[in-house]
Amino acid sequence: MNIQEMTIADYEEVAALWRKTEGIGLHDDVDSKEGVANYLERNPSLSFVARENGKIVGAVLCGHDGRRGYLNHLAVDSACRGRGIGKALAAHCLEGLKKAGISRCNIHVFADNQHGHSFWKHLGWSERNDLKVMYCRLT
Ligand SMILES: CC(C)(COP(=O)(O)OP(=O)(O)OC[C@H]1O[C@@H](n2cnc3c(N)ncnc32)[C@H](O)[C@@H]1OP(=O)(O)O)[C@@H](O)C(=O)NCCC(=O)NCCS
């Protein structure tokens, strides 16, 4: 298994992994090829794929807004879990954020994704109960 920076050439394979992974919510607009291309362009060297025998078995998007980091869509193929791939992908992101001078990172986890909550807690992440995520559509 090796970890490489995600490029837009990986999009179709990564999107297929996200689509089949429980706990990952995709939106047609922001998660389109164009949306992910914009994200990768704005946040170079922060998003990664894990490959095994050439096939993508894990992926994560990461970026920052100049003050805080954001980690999105961490997914590992169900056949390859429990081998340190998720942890390694997250560590690559946090290392990249640190190098960019970012000292905090957020992640959105679905409220009913108990598996995701316990994974992040196991890695030392803290839960915030004082916030609710709100959003609006611009188009
Ligand atoms: C969550 C996920 C990314 C973990 O990937 P993974 O490759 O299986 O995890 P790792 O093998 O790297 O595990 C790293 C550590 O976390 C632990 N761990 C893994 N899943 C865990 C869970 N659900 N609860 C608690 N600990 C967990 C492992 O035992 C390991 O512990 P160690 O480092 O002390 O030995 C993967 O299960 C997945 O894709 N889940 C569905 C999508 C999802 O929920 N993503 C997260 C929400 S955004």
Brief summary:
The protein is of the alpha+beta class and 139 residues long.
How much of the sequence is in beta strands?
15-25%
The ligands found in this model are:
coenzyme A
Q: What gross morphology would you assign?
A: globular
Structure class: alpha+beta
Q: Mean pLDDT score, rounded?
A: 97
As for the CATH topology, it is Aminopeptidase
Radius of gyration from the alpha-carbon trace, in angstroms: 14 Å
Word description of this protein:
The chain has helices spanning 11-20, 33-42, 85-99, 114-122; strands at residues 2-5, 48-52, 55-64, 69-76, 105-107. By secondary structure, the chain is of the alpha+beta class. The chain has one domain: Aminopeptidase. It has a 5-stranded mixed sheet with strand order 1-2-3-4-5, sandwiched between helices. Strand 3 (55-64) and strand 4 form a beta hairpin. It is globular. The mean pLDDT is 97. The structure holds coenzyme A. Coenzyme A is lined by residues 21-24, 74-76, 81-87, 109, 113, 115-116, 118-119, 122.
Which keywords apply here?
five-stranded mixed sheet, 32% helix, binds coenzyme A, single chain, alpha+beta, 139 residues, Aminopeptidase
